Write the structure tokens for this entry.
Amino acid sequence: MTATESKLQEIVAAKLKVKPDQVPLDKSFVEDIGLDSFDLMSIIIEIEETFPPVSLAADEAQTLKTLQEVAAYIDRHATRSPS
Amino acid sequence: MVIVHSFIVHFYFVSISFALLGHPANYDHLDHLLRQLRPDLAPENTGTSREGVAQLFELVPSYAEKATLSVAPNVNGKLIVCTFLPDRLTSPKQLTSAHHKTRDACQLSKDLGAKIAGLGGFTSITIAGKLNALSDELGIALTSGGSLTSALALAQIDLLLQKLKLKIKDQTIAILGASGEIGTACMSALAARAKKVIAIARNKNKLEQLVGEHRTVFTSIDPHDAYQADIIIAATSSAQPLLSESGLKRGAIVCDIGYPKTLVESPSPRPDVLIFGGGLAESDLPFDLHLIMGLPSPRLIYGCFSETITLALSHRFENFSDGELPITIERMEEILALAYSHGFKPAPLYRQDTLMTDAMIERVISNW
């Protein structure tokens, strides 16, 4: 698992109120892991804040579904690793 | 000349104190708006496909409607349209874009002079957990309007039960979207009053934390569990309908606060259920937004906007419902009393475009 993937699991786990290793990396986090819309939105905002200057508003982010895909996208675009 | 010009500009410039942020509920609502307001852009006249129209709409930045909403001397507002459709927010890109459009709309409200902006419908979700931070950053009060929306929905249910000579302590009430701001407010208000509350939301752990010690409240993650209840309060921000009229039990009462709606209504209404749009107010406001808002009467207005206008009329430019602190019964009572003092009252019951008269309600009861 990459450092970005584990940071994403941490962010999502806090919303789902589960342990980070219980957050699936290979399922659609928009639809399949039980987040309500408020939490989903706050995760998206937090991702942009945690990994500047990554923007999920870019066209390339259109097809992202799983946390694994988001992590790979972040690693391609981020200039610094998560603290 | 310059002085005269300045005077005229000053004299005619209407300053606004509040802004109402909204968006079309779905594609059909957008299509209806285009036909009514901009027939030159309507799909039937331009030959543009449904997808094309939606994409064009999303390309437009958040904008203010031309008309000034004058409520009282020196209390004027604007409707700001956030150009997204909730049912198309299915990817991180679209969700992020909606977030930025709401932020831009708040900035625009501030630039136009507003001291408070009400975040209607899905716009409050798009700044999830950041309402206070954004308010501080931009220097404008923001409110989701959830306190008055919840209070109005509960008042509408109480008035209906009085009319039906039913007692709330005998009712099983399902709340869909129970982990949201409005759902949680309704849950805490009803936990002590109803026979049983079925709290339904997607995130089970979060829901169980919210329910806490309430012994009358049961939790579920299955929306269909709502069908067992006597009364259903739908307070989801789901872009997709979760329930259908055909699944309701005989005698069910549905208060649908969702925007867009949570329940799909049958084309021919069932004669044995009562379904109405909840969380709305009735008022004598001197402007008419019902076409734009997709409401059946000029006298109706959404609870979130009623809260914003109430706060503006009371010169209380504060983040009254911030989506972070739970809405308490005391806060609901406070904003409801304030709204009443400015002439708002719980809306009469409407189903789609039709006012439900006492005779219609009695006909439904005769089928129970």
Remarks:
- Chain B has 14 helices and 19 strands.
- Chain B touches chain A through 32 residues (CB under 8 Å).
- Residues 13-147+282-346 of chain B form one domain.
- The first strand of chain B starts at residue 18 and ends at 22.
